[in-house]
Design brief:
The chain is mainly α and 144 residues long. Helices cover 50% and strands 10% of the residues. The chain has helices spanning 2-19, 50-59, 74-80, 100-105, 108-124, 129-142; strands at residues 68-72, 87-90, 95-99. Bound molecules: zinc ion.
Length: 144
C-alpha cells in the first residue's frame, strides 16, 4: 500500500512538472543582479505570447546561446526601477530583463532593435548607449 501511494505521488509530481508552462518571469521583489530561477505566473494577455515573440526575435539575431531573457511584469518593472522603459541587461549574468508591456505593445521592428541593442551591450561589454545602438544597427542590417 505504501509503495502504491508513493507511485501515485510520483506520477502526480511528474504531471505537475510536465504541465508547467515554459514561461519565465522575474520573481517578485528580487533585485535584478540575482540569478534566481524565474517563476511562472499567469499567462500574459494578447494574441501572441510575449515570450514567444522574444524567442522568435532571438532566432533572427546573433544572441549568445548562454544569454537569458527574463520577462518582467509591469508591476515588478515599476518596483525594480531599472531606469529604462523597455529592457535592461546585466552583462555579468548574461541576462536581459525585458518589460512585458513593452513587448506586448511594440511592433516587430522596434522589438527586434531593442533586443539587438541589448546584444550591442553584450558585444561591447559596455554600458555606453550610443555604442550599443551602433552595434544594434549593424546587427539588424546584417541579419535581414
Ligand atoms: Zn542600452
Amino acid at each position: 500500500m505504501r509503495s502504491l501511494l508513493l507511485a501515485v505521488l510520483i506520477v502526480l509530481i511528474a504531471q505537475v512538472t510536465v504541465a508547467a508552462p515554459p514561461c519565465v518571469r522575474y520573481p517578485k521583489g528580487k533585485a535584478p543582479a540575482t540569478h534566481a530561477l524565474p517563476l511562472c505566473e499567469e499567462k500574459p494577455s494578447g494574441n501572441v505570447d510575449p515570450l514567444q515573440r522574444i524567442a522568435e526575435m532571438r532566432k533572427t539575431l546573433p544572441v549568445p546561446a548562454d544569454w537569458h531573457f527574463f520577462l518582467v511584469t509591469e508591476a515588478d518593472w515599476r518596483k525594480i526601477q531599472l531606469g529604462t522603459h523597455s529592457a535592461y541587461s546585466n552583462l555579468a549574468y548574461k541576462t536581459t530583463f525585458i518589460r512585458e508591456s513593452y513587448v506586448e505593445s511594440v511592433q516587430d521592428d522596434k522589438l527586434r532593435h531593442t533586443i539587438a541593442h541589448e546584444m550591442g551591450h553584450a558585444r561591447c561589454q559596455c554600458t555606453d548607449e550610443s555604442t550599443a545602438d551602433r552595434i544594434a544597427d549593424q546587427l539588424t542590417q546584417d541579419s535581414q
